[in-house]
Structures are given as C-alpha cells and as structure tokens.
Amino acid sequence: MKETTSAFDFIIPVSLQKGETISIELAELFVNHLKIVQEAKHGRVKISRGNLIYTPDKDFKGTDYLTYSGESKQGIRKTGMIVFSVGEIVFKPRARLLIQLGEKLIKNESIALTELVKNAYDADASYCKVHMNHVEDKQVGEIIIEDDGWGMDLDIIRNAWLEPGSDNKEKVVKAKQYSEKGRLPIGEKGIGRFGVHKLGREIELVTRKQGEDEVVVKINWEDFEQHKYLDKAPVSVSERKPEVFLKEATGTRIIIRKLTRDWTRGMVRDAFRAINATSIPLTYDIEKYEQISKKKPDPNGFSALPTIDKTEWIEDIPKWQDILQYALFFFDIELENDQITKFNYTFRPWENMKSVKGRKVSEKDEPVHSILDIPDLSHRKYFPLEIPKGVAIGKVKFQGCIYVRDKGILKLALDKPTFLSDYLNENGGIRIYRNGLRIYDYGERENDWLDLDYRRFNDPGVKVSNNMILASITLNRETSSGLIEKTNREGFIENESYKVFKNQILYALKLVELCRLSDKKALDETSKPKVETESVLKSIDSLKSYIGEKITNKKTQEELNFYVDRVEKNYTFMYNTLVKTASAGMGWGIYIHEIEKIIKEIEKA
Predict the structure, then answer these.
(1) Among 15-24, 312-321, 352-361, whose mean pLDDT is lowest?
(2) How far apart are the C-alpha atoms of 498 and 490, rounded to whole Å?
(3) Pick from 130, 411, 426, 460: most CB atoms within 10 A?
(4) pTM (2 decimals)?
C-alpha cells in the first residue's frame, strides 16, 4: 500500500439534531480497509457497507469528531476527519447552495476574477497574476490565479476559507489591524471565493504560509451536486512538502478547470479591461505619466497582471499612455464634508492648436474661490449641504481628464478618431476606488450612477457625458465606513452617506464643467468648421431694404418689418446659443440653410 504525507485528505462537517442517527457514505472515497482511527467521544460509531453511522449520546449537545482511514481505488492510503455539530433544530443548507451563490451572486466572469484579485490584495500580496490558457474550449481550458501574499495553513483553511460568510476580515477592519503593507481588508463578507465557483467546476488551491508546509485543497462541484446536503459534500484537504512555493516563498495559487463556458474574444477583452482597472491609474496627466512610470515600484503597492496564451486577442488593446495624450482638460480635487479643500483645473491644448492658450484654475482663483462650499443640489435655490449624524465618508479625492468628441477637432491629432471614440465608449465614466482597489460596478457602461448622460442631454453645451470622461474617486477604507458595499458587488447601499457622497461629486464636477465652458468655447471658435452666417444676415438686410423701397403702405411695411425683425432676432439667438455650444452638430447648419432659402423666397414674392 502506498503512503501519503497528508494530515487529512478529507474534512467533512456534519450537523444533526440531538439523538439523531446519521449515515455518511464513504464507499466512493474508500474501497478497502475502512476503519476508525480515533473514536468519537460523545457518540456511538459503526461502519456498514462503506457507510459510517454515528449516533450521539442521549443528552449530548455540542461538537464531536472522529478520524478514519482507508484505501482508495488507486491503492493510496487516505485519512479523514468528520466533525459533528449536535444541537437542536438547525439549518441544513443544500450542497448546491455554494454553486447557486457563485452563479447568482457574482454578476459575470470579469467580476469573479476581480474578486479573486481583491483576495490577493487582502493577503498583503504585491501582485496577482491571472493567466488564461485555452479558455476558448471549456473542456481543456484553465485559469490560474497566483499571488505572493501571506498564504494559508491548515487551520485557516478549515476555520476561514471553508466557512462561507466568515467574519475574519470584518473583525480585522473593526479592530483597525493594519497589515505590514498598511492595508485593511477590502472584502469583509467572506464571499469573494464564490468567484471561483462562477468560473469552473474543478478547483485546485495550493497555498503556503511562512514556515509551514503547503496545503492543497481540491473541490469538484459536480460531486456537490450528487450530495443532498452541504455537510455531506466531501472536500479534499491535504498537506505536503513545498512543490510550488519553494524555499521561503509564500502565497496562493488557484487552478480552475472544466470551465463553466467557452470564452470568446470579447469576454477575454472585458476581463482584461476589468483586471487592469482593479488598481487605480498612476496618473491622469500625460505630462506626469513618464516621470511617475520611471519611479521604482512602491514596496507596499499592488498590481494585477493578466496574461493569455492567445495574445492576438488582446494585442490591440490601447495602452493607458496612448489614451491620455489626447485629453484636453484635467482636474484634481479633494473634498471633505461640505467643503472643497483642493481644486486644480488645467486646460492644455495640443501643440498644433496655436490660436488657443492653455490655462490653470486653482481653489484660490475666482470664481471657484467664492463657491467652495458644497450646496445641497436637491434644491434649486442655494441650501447648504447638511451632513446627517452617522454619515462617514472621510476625505475624497476626485481626479480625471475630459476629452472632446468632435471629429473636426480630433482630426487635428488623429488620422482615425474612431480609435479614441471607441475606447471612450467602452471605458468612459467615473470609477470609485477604496485604498487603491476598485469598487464595482461604478464606471461600467451599464451603470450611469451619476446620471451624466441624462445631464448632458438636458444641457449639451455644458455638461459632460460618460463617454467624454475618464476619472476616479479615491476613498479611505477606515474613514469611509458609512459607504457599505452590497453583497452582490454592485455598488454601495444607497444610505445617507451615499446620498451625501453623490452630492459632493456632482458639485465638484459642476465646477470643472464651469471652468471648461469658456475654454471649450474658445476651442470651438478657432478649431471647429465655422457655420456661415453673414449670407443670412445680408439677406435679412436686403429684405428690409426691399420692403422700404417697394412697400408704400406704412401699416403693411411696419407689419412686415415686425416679422422680419423677429426672424433676425430668433436666428441670432439660435446661432449664439446653439451653434456655438460645445455640442453643436452640423444639423444646425442645415437649419440656417433653410432660413436662407425662406428669406430668398420672400424676396422673390
């Protein structure tokens, strides 16, 4: 018989009522030499036809356990432990519950992967590598997630990782126990591991804590479907000498096989976009990017690194610096409670925009200096923003860049403006980060959480839409406790803190839009194709002269002039208010052309 070095290959938790007899099927795991190694202390045990039968003592209530051993089909000696929780009436979760939670609680594969990346961050890792191999074929494909974090030992696996909804991280946050890298856990609900279940049916986890052996956990979700209750579903847990994390290395590697679906090129690109966006960008200012990117990596920093064997699927994804160079407007703002404490706005024209000048506005400059107090935007008139008791948001950092989408302007810098437009359509919006890690699903295409597109529809000349802006909001984990993530990972619970938070951001953006307005107007006047208006005004003047010369009846003359004056007045308003705004389309040029035709028809009459 072959021997293994494992502590326990299987750990099976079981819940039952006082006096209840329970039968546990072990025949699938062991075919020969099944025997009890350590007897239960508070109950009777017998083995019959591959089943282990346990009956607790009459008045016993609490936890009991036993260990057993046997020989597998491959002739390998295996050991296991069964932990019995004996009490009154208890919940008996179905084995398929974990599968359902993985499928329903995690929205899509991209979020599933980012949840696993967050777990690496919480383990104080400096990186998390995500490699996809043959994922286009779910039968042979695999996804490997690996980090260099703390790793886990057998005790943590038993009492935390195998406990869905574990409150270990929540306790750390409440106690403000910072890690060596100065981190508080981002996840605290104990459900991030459900991301694994969303991705594949077979899971192999290898992990190693400092100074310990490796622990190997194997889960086959198809086995779970064959067992009625969760406490009957076997999980293979074993220890071994290090094979993955050698010498002093620590960390966790998760290998996911038998994928739940065939991945497409679009799914992979969405996943890469999500993983790359897990960490906050280095900067939104292209002039600072090169300087910052040359600095040595922060020893306490964290990065997510996705790779794939089919490199042709992702080779044309634009790099961050390629996108930044086409932004024209930049901002860097800090807010706290009802005050904007820092405000920096920059307009930086491209080199070939010789006729417009760049400028900067800070919190010391007017008109911003006089309007740093944040009002309550739910009122039309000015009302100061009140911070209700219990609201906890802390200092907020808001930074980003804004683009123009007018093709006439974009062609000054791009041969194919669709390159930038397509990127902004996919990635535009305002994202939220907490201690450097992204909170989903803010900034995703389907979540216009600030109603930016609706605002622009109502005020197109001033407001910015999601596909014009790349921006991030940074929160501190400790001081933003009032902003509570939903269990399904789709944003914050919409409580009082969240309402105040949205108000803060919308007002800050309003000041940016105010500063941008005059710069955009100057840009339009010098860079956009001009709409001809002189011919219309000359036609109106010639019409007035014609009326004066040809119409002898003063009353008729006055009436005609009254209507011509109205046409001139309305046209001038339309041109100044609509054509010159940032969102003016060529459609208004068509209207002007039609007015010109009408005037000529009047002259002919």
Answers:
(1) 15-24
(2) 14
(3) 130
(4) 0.71
